[in-house]
Specification:
The chain is built from eight helices and six strands. With 197 residues, the chain is of the alpha+beta class. It has one domain: Tgt2/MlaC (Nuclear Transport Factor 2, Chain: A). Strands 1, 2, 3, 4, 5 and 6 form a six-stranded antiparallel beta sheet that branches.
Length: 197
């Protein structure tokens, strides 16, 4: 569900407020899925391509990785930092691509953004309204204003922050095996997920 957004041209995205960006792109991504039988039938390769080309440009994976690493980020050398961003990005894409493949005509309500006084950060609260008998799922997008538009740096699903959730895992892995140990864990996990395509 975290990826029910952000399929929009960069030029247009620069001109939109965060809630308008989310609302417009949610509609566009859903329309793409509804019109494509392969996507509706769970074609993983096509879904990954959709995520890579239409969604990821609107996420700040560097900041997400920094926040997930916490105090350990500064102890990684630049080469390690770049690898961490790449591996974390890959992990999130492969782990959460299923969010789009499980779409079944849910309704997504986008509420007005709560923007901080400086105007550079905002939270966009959305609710995924599921089928009969299922509880709505709140999904909040923490966003920051960049020169090329608003970017997501955290996603909170039902009160659980993605960044905070990974921070605990990363902290434990770094304590056990250092930065290189964490990198190996991420690389191995991504290879495992790739093998399940």
């Amino acid at each position: 569900m975290m990826f029910f957004c952000f399929q929009i041209s960069t030029v247009l995205a620069m001109d939109l407020e965060p809630d308008r960006l989310v609302d417009k792109t949610v509609r566009e991504v859903i329309e793409i899925i509804q019109k494509d039988e392969e996507l509706k039938n769970g074609n993983k390769e096509k879904m990954l391509d959709l995520i890579e080309t239409k969604i990821l440009p609107h996420f700040n994976f560097t900041r997400m990785t920094q926040l997930a690493m916490g105090k350990h980020w500064s102890s990684a050398v630049p080469e390690q930092q770049n690898k961490l961003v790449d591996e974390f990005r890959t992990l999130l894409v492969r782990t959460y691509s299923n969010a789009l493949t499980t779409y079944h005509d849910e309704t997504i309500k986008v509420n007005q953004a709560h923007t901080k006084p400086d105007g550079n950060e905002a939270t966009v609260r959305t609710v995924v309204i599921q089928g009969k008998g299922k509880q709505p799922v709140p999904i909040d997008y923490s966003m920051e204003k960049k020169p090329d538009g608003w970017k997501v740096y955290d996603v909170t699903v039902s009160g659980v922050s993605l960044v905070t959730n990974y921070r605990g895992t990363f902290n434990s892995q770094v304590r056990k095996g250092g930065i290189e140990g964490l990198l190996k864990t991420l690389t191995d996990k991504n290879k495992s997920l790739e093998g399940k395509k």
